[in-house]
User: Fold this.
Amino acid sequence: MKPIGVLIIGRKRPGFDQEWNAIMRRRAAEALAEMKLEVVTAAEPVVDDYTIIAAIEQITRAGCDSLIVLQPSLGNGQLAFTVMQQWQKPVVLWATPERADGPAKASSCSLVATHLWAAMFRQSNRAFEFVYGDPSKGDVRDSLKRAVLLTQVSTELKRTKVGLIGTHAPGFVAMAADAFLLQQSLGVQLHDLSLTQFIERARTMDEARVAEDVKEVGKMSLPMDAGVTRDDLALNSRYYLALKDLIAEEKLDAVALQCWPELSNQVGQWPYLALTRLTSEGIVTSMEGDVDGALTCLLGKLIDAGGGFVTDWLEHDRESVLFWHGGVAPLEMCRTAKLAKHFNIEKPMVVDTELKPDLPVTVARLWRCDGKYHLTAFEGLTIPPKRALSGNTGLVKVEGLNVSKWFDEALHAGLPHHVVVFGGQHADSFRRLARLLKVAWFE
Assistant:
């Protein structure tokens, strides 16, 4: 994590319990140090335009993407506008508690002050996160760390470059990428790349590199279904190496690949083993030219949700969803995997496996509709599938949500046929992220 800027709002005139103020400042400094966060801050609390401008210049020079504004006692609300002018990125507004054992009067009005600033930020259409509590408390520290992480995402997206190799798969028009909406809404750069050149790159890959990579795949000890042999590994190694080279050369943060019908029909294999390996290594990919699917995976990575499984929504009932695709799920989310042929176009390299049972998961998706971006997420738990299917599958039970009703409403909101499954419970982080990014949240 990059250094974090901290502004402590002080007072020019005496007032409130300044002993308690000092205690809160000391506890905050101890919390940030024990959380192993690198902090850039002024030597003294800021009290006016001059001290705020000097402090934020110091914080900016240090390369901070995050700013915590801590107000242990009620300060000058007008200074919120000065902070907004000097700092264009989201902020974390942190309020500390009142003194419980002091005289019978308000000791700090820290929450009152932070409430005031929050209202001013919102009415100025400026993004912020809010944290409330004693810095010595573990749950407060966790909340602070998550708030800082979330506020960094919008800045990170403005540096993000996503590659699209080819275009969306034939007929999957709802997944077509809009370069200008991506830039206007999220600050993301879309970089179109030639599928023909990618195929040529894979075909002409250095044979020694291919042979060495086949050895690396062999170390994974993946069993093979009937009709798949070690000789089939080389082509997916070519895909894998070509993708890694292209990502490095073009400085891509994510890549979406048009994988069919060209790769399976013209080149001879599906690229799912290559995509599975990249996803398992933390490299963000998606298939079928699904740029927003790749960005959904990237958002999950940025909020510490880990790698995501881009998947079709195959079927559902009132309380569960069955997800399926040819094989791109991170292997750490899966049971034992084996290599197989696709059930439809019967060529390698599908990765047959199921998501591990009893795994808490979050289902999420970013998409565009009506000229703006939308984001959704809900949580569930993987359960044993009711029947065996080839490819990547996962049956997810969802508590407290009528899945059939939710799906019907999601269709009318334009939800594409791919969603992304992440390990762990992250729906609230996605919801808060939508708010920070000013993206429409679908409940």
User: Anything to note?
Assistant: Residues 77 and 186 are 30 Å apart (CA to CA). The mean pLDDT is 96.
